[in-house]
Design a protein that fits this description.
By secondary structure, this protein is α/β, with parallel strands linked by helices. The protein has helices at about 1-20, 25-35, 40-45, 50-55, 70-80, 110-115, and strands at about 65, 90, 100, 120, 135, 155-160, 165-170, 180-185, 190.
C-alpha cells in the first residue's frame, strides 16, 4: 500500500515539475513549439494566459482543415481570435437552410429565396492575415466579397461551384503572391483574361 502511495505522489510531483518548467519558457518559445502541432491540438493546449498569448503568435502549419457545419463554423469563429495565423482554410457547403451573409450586389432572386436561412458572418476570415491557401467549394455565397481577394500572403486559391459569387479577374491584384488559381463551374466571373498575369511562377 505504501509503495502505491509513493508512486502516486511521484507521479503528481512529476506533473507539477513539468508544468513548473513550462512556465519558464518564453511566449515566443511556446509559439515555436505550438508551430509543430495541428490547429485542434493548439486549441486544446491553451491552458493559461501565457499559452493563449503564445497561440496567437503561432504560425499554424498548413494542414487540411475544412468547415462545413454550424459547429465547425463556430470553431472557425473561435480560431479567428485564438489562432489568427492560420495558414489554410477550406469552406464547404453548410447545412440545409444555412448560408453565409450576402455580399455586395447580390443576386436578388437568390437573396429572396434564402432570406429566412440561418446566416453566418463570412467576413471573419478576413482576420486570418497569414492565409496561404483558401478553398471555397459549394460555399453558399451571394454577391461580391472584396475581402476574399485581399490576403497578401495567399499562394493558392480554389473556387469551385460558387454559382452566385461575383468577382472580376482584376481583383486578383489584391493577391500579390498568388501562384495557383483553380476555378470550376462559376457563373459570375468577369474581367480581362490578361489579369491572370498576376500569377507568380
Amino acid at each position: 500500500p505504501h509503495s502505491k502511495k509513493r508512486q502516486r505522489l511521484a507521479g503528481s510531483d512529476q506533473i507539477n515539475y513539468d508544468d513548473h518548467h513550462i512556465n519558464y519558457l518564453s511566449t515566443d518559445a511556446l509559439a515555436h513549439i505550438f508551430g509543430f502541432l495541428p490547429p485542434k491540438d493548439i486549441m486544446w493546449a491553451r491552458l493559461n494566459k501565457k499559452m493563449r498569448e503564445a497561440a496567437k503568435k503561432t504560425i499554424v502549419p498548413i494542414t487540411d482543415i475544412g468547415f462545413c457545419s454550424e459547429t465547425q463554423y463556430n470553431a472557425l469563429v473561435a480560431m479567428s481570435t485564438a489562432l489568427p495565423n492560420l495558414q489554410q482554410i477550406s469552406l464547404y457547403y453548410l447545412l440545409f437552410r444555412h448560408k453565409y451573409s450576402d455580399g455586395e450586389d447580390p443576386n436578388e432572386e437568390e437573396a429572396t429565396d434564402t432570406a429566412n436561412f440561418i446566416t453566418h458572418d463570412i467576413e471573419i476570415i478576413s482576420r486570418f492575415r497569414k492565409l496561404r491557401s483558401l478553398e471555397l467549394v459549394l460555399t453558399p455565397l451571394n454577391g461580391r466579397y472584396p475581402f476574399l481577394f485581399s490576403f497578401p500572403l495567399l499562394h493558392k486559391l480554389n473556387i469551385t461551384m460558387c454559382h452566385h459569387l461575383k468577382w472580376d479577374l482584376e481583383i486578383l491584384e489584391g493577391l500579390p503572391l498568388l501562384k495557383e488559381l483553380s476555378c470550376c463551374h462559376l457563373d459570375s466571373v468577369t474581367g480581362n483574361i490578361n489579369s491572370l498575369r498576376v500569377l507568380k511562377d
